């Protein structure tokens, strides 16, 4: 009986082979970084609900922030690579993957997709080097799924500046970050616009959200904006309606689907390793039929989800991905993730709730991934409208 699982135990259909040699080498460096710099800190920082800032220099050296963007200090790699990267991070820790997704995807992505060339030149190189850490401020205390039409944060033009007022909730990285993309409704025309806001600007206050049972390493903030002044030069010049916000979410929702696969994969890999080491009745439990049944169910979920997000990334790289594609992936993969992490905990019995066995974190964190970047219900409405031609939105 092998002491460790075979190399193909998670990547059963060899999806890694779809990447080129250079991309695989980068993923390999990411894997080494996670094993040496991140994994040893997770138990302590997850328990304390703090972010290990000491991992940031190593993260910066990887050069993976903003990986799918061309120019401006970014690597210009494929969306397939970017998805594999998100999965690799999430298979070790969903919080670290979320930190990356907020900074690299939501924050940098807003500037890349909606900013002027001057704004890209000013911010993206520093963000790619992790010299500036970004956040994304869309959700509000009373506005989640209804953000398209219900934002209450306001922006009022005053000569060459804008005055922002309102509150934002669940804003990842805000307590430790340097800038936040704030989405606010223009009082003049009622349209949603984006702003690059300095987290240290007068009137910008962040309160760390405490007592979470999921994504405890991610630092979420409750932001209060009180007459915060932002120069016109820091208004996202190509974001003049909620359609721009939707462009960003379409891209990053695909990344969350990849993270769901990574979360499921991390739970499965730890459960598989445990089954090879844990002995009952004189032999490893990996040799029991019911344990193998759980492992194969988990592997099936992971492989099916991995195939779906791989095709989604290929559509992104071809410029053919639509909202319906990202929404189906997010809805499907998060449901399969939730199922898979539950089976992993079940396989480990009582030990499954101990953080030291590296499955309890995935079970808890799956609940956050299941909800953010569009709930399952909202994403099913997007897909349902696409396939029936009838809108069920209210």
Plain-language structure description:
With 394 residues, this protein is α+β, with helices and mostly antiparallel strands. Helix content is 50%, strand content 15%. It has three domains: 7-128, Butyryl-Coa Dehydrogenase, subunit A, domain 1, CATH 1.10.540.10; 134-241, Butyryl-CoA Dehydrogenase, subunit A, domain 2, CATH 2.40.110.10; 243-388, Butyryl-CoA Dehydrogenase, subunit A, domain 3 (Up-down Bundle), CATH 1.20.140.10. The chain is built from twelve helices and eleven strands. Strands 3, 4, 5, 6, 7, 8 and 9 form a seven-stranded mixed β-sheet that branches. A two-stranded antiparallel sheet has the order 1-2. α5 runs antiparallel to α6 (117-128). The N and C termini lie far apart (56 Å). The mean pLDDT is 95.
Topology:
Layout: H1 21-38, H2 42-48, H3 56-62, E1 70-71, E2 74-75, H4 79-90, H5 94-114, H6 117-128, E3 134-137, H7 147-150, E4 154-158, E5 161-172, E6 179-186, E7 192-198, E8 204-208, E9 220-231, H8 242-277, E10 279-280, E11 283-284, H9 289-317, H10 323-347, H11 360-371, H12 376-388
Helix pairs in contact: 1-4, 4-5, 4-8, 5-6, 5-8, 8-9, 8-10, 8-11, 9-10, 10-11, 10-12
Keywords summarizing the entry:
single chain; 394 residues; alpha+beta; Butyryl-Coa Dehydrogenase, subunit A, domain 1; Butyryl-CoA Dehydrogenase, subunit A, domain 2; Butyryl-CoA Dehydrogenase, subunit A, domain 3; 3 domains; two-stranded antiparallel ribbon; 12 helices; 11 strands; 50% helix; globular; AcylCo_DH/oxidase_C; oxidoreductase
């Amino acid at each position: 009986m092998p002491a460790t699982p075979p190399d193909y135990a998670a990547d059963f259909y060899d999806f890694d082979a779809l990447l080129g040699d250079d991309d695989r080498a980068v993923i390999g460096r990411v894997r080494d970084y996670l094993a040496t710099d991140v994994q040893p800190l997770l138990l302590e920082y997850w328990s304390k609900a703090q972010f290990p800032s000491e991992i940031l220099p190593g993260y910066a050296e990887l050069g993976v922030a903003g990986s799918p963007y061309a120019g401006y200090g970014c690597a210009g790699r494929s969306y397939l690579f970017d998805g594999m990267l998100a999965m690799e991070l999430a298979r070790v820790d969903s919080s670290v993957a979320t930190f990356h997704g907020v900074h690299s995807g939501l924050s940098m992505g807003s500037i890349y997709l909606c900013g002027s060339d001057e704004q890209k030149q000013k911010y993206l190189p520093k963000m790619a080097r992790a010299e500036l850490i970004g956040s994304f401020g869309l959700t509000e205390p009373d506005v989640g799924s209804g953000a398209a039409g219900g934002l209450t944060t306001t922006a009022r033009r005053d000569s060459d500046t804008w005055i922002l007022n309102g509150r934002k909730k669940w804003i990842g990285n805000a307590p430790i970050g340097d800038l936040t993309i704030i989405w606010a409704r223009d009082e003049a025309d009622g349209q949603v616009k984006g702003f690059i806001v300095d987290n240290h600007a007068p009137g910008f206050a962040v309160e760390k959200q405490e007592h979470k049972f999921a994504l405890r390493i991610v630092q979420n903030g409750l932001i209060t904006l009180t007459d915060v002044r932002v120069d016109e030069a820091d208004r996202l010049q190509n974001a003049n309606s909620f359609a721009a916000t939707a462009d960003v979410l379409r891209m990053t929702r695909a990344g969350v689907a990849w993270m769901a696969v990574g979360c499921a994969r991390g739970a499965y890999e730890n459960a598989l390793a445990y089954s090879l080491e844990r002995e009952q009745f004189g032999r490893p439990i990996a040799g029991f039929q019911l344990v193998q049944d759980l492992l194969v169910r988990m592997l099936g979920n992971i492989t099916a989800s991995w195939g779906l997000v791989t095709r989604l990334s290929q559509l992104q790289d071809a410029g053919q991905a639509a909202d319906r594609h990202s929404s189906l992936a997010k809805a499907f993969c998060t449901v399969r993730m939730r199922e898979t992490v539950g089976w992993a905990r079940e396989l480990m019995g009582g030990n499954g709730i101990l953080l030291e066995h590296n499955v309890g974190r995935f079970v808890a964190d799956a609940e956050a991934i299941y909800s953010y970047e569009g709930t399952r219900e909202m994403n099913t409405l997007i897909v349902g409208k696409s396939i029936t031609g009838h809108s069920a939105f209210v």
